[in-house]
Structures are given as C-alpha cells and as structure tokens.
C-alpha cells in the first residue's frame, strides 16, 4: 500500500487581479489557507460573503466554460484555477473574489500556479482522500467520448485525442501523468499550465459580435487563423490546443473534491462531457465512502459474535459484523488466512476454501440476522435446505469475504434468507437458505 499523502493548504494568503475572460469585468481574487477537510470554497465578497463550494453539485450549465452556483451566487470560468489547485495538490483553500468571473489572464493556468507557488504550501495532519476507481466509467455525446478506467498506478493518467478539421490543429494527442510524487506540481507547471485556451478566428469574431470578450485582442489570447496564430502570437507547444484541453479536463474533474486514481481517455471531450464524467465518478465516490463508513462501524466483533452464535473454532466462520438493518439485512466479514485448518488438506499446494464452508459462513451470518427478531432471541437457526447455490469464483488465502444476508421471509419457526459472498467487487457465492428456528436446548 502506498504511504498516505497529507492534505495541503496554502502557507499564507496571496492575491491576484485581472479581467474576466468572457465578461472583461475587473476582479480581485485572494487565496487564504483553510483547515483539513475544508475543501475548495469560493466566497463572493460583493454578495455579502456568499459561499460557493467547488463541488459537482454546484455546477451551473454554461457553454465553453465551467461555472458554479449556490443560490443566487455564481462563479464563472473556474476550470483554469481548479486545474492549478489540482496540479499543485492543494486540497483546502478559501478563495475570496469581488466579481462574478475569475481572471482570464492569458487563457492559461500559469498565472494561478505562480501566485499559489509564491504563497507556498502547508501540509496538514489529515490524509488525502482519493477516489480509487474500481470499474470503468464511460460517457459519450455523438462522436465525443471520455472514459475513466481503473489503474494500479497512483495518480491520474490522462490520454487526450483532439481531432479538428482546421488545418493548423488537425489531430493532436497529449498524454500526462498527474502523479503523486511530482514535487510542487513541477511537471504540471511546465507541461500543462502554460497551455492557453484557443479559439478559431470565425468563433472569436462571432463571440465579439455577440458582446462576449470584446476587451480582448488577438495578442491577448490564442486565436487561430488558417495559417496559424493571429496578432503576432505563437504556439508555446506544437500541440498547445490539446494540452489546454487536458488542462480543462484536470480542472473539471477536481470538482470531485478529491484526487482520482484512474486512467482517463478522452476524444473530443469538452466541459459538458467532462462534467458528465465527474458526476458519474461522484456516484462511485459516494459508494466508496459508504463502504468505508460500514467498515469503520464494526457493530459486532468476534467476542460479541461468540455470545450470539454457538459455533467455536474451527467452525466459527464470521469474524465481525459491519452493518445490521433490523431483521432485514446484515453485512459481515470473514478474513481468509493461510492458517485456516482446512487448507492443510484442501488442497496441499493449491489452497482453496471449500465451497461448503463459504456457504456455511453465509449461513452463520444468517443466524445473526434471524436472531435480531425479538421472538427469536435465545433460539437456534438450524439449516433446513439450500436452493440456488452457485459458487462463482475460488476463495483463497488472503481474500476477504464480504458476506451479505437478506431476509426473504421469516415466520415463527421458519426463516428464508438470501445470501451472497463477495471478494472485492466479484461475486464469489450465492445461495437461498431456509432455517428451522428452535430453542437452543432440546431438553424439556
């Protein structure tokens, strides 16, 4: 397991000033340190200090940019700053601004990176939370696509393919590794942050005719004509457009509030599709948090289980209970180690947990569930029948069996329980088990 990385905030405050990229409105932005687990929060000082957390839930629909809204308070064009925060691995910051839109500067994230580096970083005491993707997430819109797939490597690897019919752009590919060991965002600062937003000449003319970005000239931003950049501008990289698309993607995904361990593959993706991927990944993050909370609850440890179940070594096959929902559902764990006595003979050289014992573990957890019903306390659940038993994958030393039992029907003397056992995301076994509920002593 990699060493947990600490959360970071700013060592001191820093201020930048500029004009909004689209609106041209003057704005002053001040970055302040924030405590662990605070996250990135914008504050509109011109609107009575209205706070807008930088989260997926607060995304406001806009063309060609990413905006955030909380009530009536709005922040426009957040992606370049969010990318700078992600590239420098800043988890917590309080950002004050006195207008609606963040400064556009030259259309890149480099001015933000320079200001944040000047403020310095301060490590906190809490560990960074990371979304470790366990299954692919894919979103599409016509011929545009973006996918996030699991990766064993820490950090986020981005592969972006840009396809334009414009002769100056054509097909461009960029790969970038937003790793965990990049000291102070050095690679991001040199390879991605300087890449500027770009506009085709006819697009720039149309926006200015619509009253958007009228304060800008061809020297201020990257405008591409048929022969190349206009206004005496020049590319900073031979593939600057696709690098800027990568910058936007990194900024949009940082609205998840945590870094991502995954490989991101994008083709023609823009802000809307980036945001759609972030929303889908946010669902995985919530699932991951729920699983973590369940694991941390540990409702019944082995000592408490021994007061409920009559089984003892070597036949007690539930180590702890994580979650109990009345007499409806129970979640438990069996840690499978090489020290299990059955591995001595099943099989020497190829140890596999006997399938009947996987079923027995599910049956024992079912006994805990049945005992939650008041009238069943102090009674035994004796196995009566097994139906729809399926063993779907071998269970070997080092596996952790997540056991789940749900009540299908429970009467005075009969209980019907549906059970499943997982190893990670894989279903290892399932069965429907019926029990006879009897007194714990057959005497009298």
Walk me through the topology.
Elements: E1 6-10, E2 14-19, E3 26-32, E4 40-44, E5 50-53, E6 59-60, E7 67-70, E8 73-75, H1 79-87, E9 93-97, H2 110-119, E10 121-127, E11 131-132, E12 137-141, E13 144-149, E14 156-163, E15 171-178, H3 186-191, E16 198-200, H4 201-209, E17 222-224, H5 240-253, E18 260-267, H6 271-297, H7 302-308, E19 320-325, E20 329-335, H8 355-370, E21 379-391, E22 400-410, E23 414-423, E24 426-439
Helix pairs in contact: 1-2, 1-5, 5-6
Short summary of the structure?
The chain is of the alpha+beta class and 444 residues long.
Structure notes:
There is one protein chain. With 444 residues, the protein is α+β, with helices and mostly antiparallel strands. The chain is 22% helix and 34% strand. It is built from eight helices and 24 strands. It has helices spanning 79-87, 110-119, 186-191, 201-209, 240-253, 271-297, 302-308, 355-370; strands spanning 6-10, 14-19, 26-32, 40-44, 50-53, 59-60, 67-70, 73-75, 93-97, 121-127, 131-132, 137-141, 144-149, 156-163, 171-178, 198-200, 222-224, 260-267, 320-325, 329-335, 379-391, 400-410, 414-423, 426-439. Strands 11, 12, 13, 14, 15 and 18 form a six-stranded mixed sheet that branches. A six-stranded antiparallel sheet has the order 19-20-22-23-24-21, with helices on both faces. It has a five-stranded mixed sheet with strand order 2-3-9-4-5, with helices on one face. Helix 1 packs across helix 2 (110-119), helix 1 (79-87) crosses helix 5 (240-253) and helix 5 (240-253) runs parallel beside helix 6 (271-297). The radius of gyration is 28 Å and the shape is elongated.
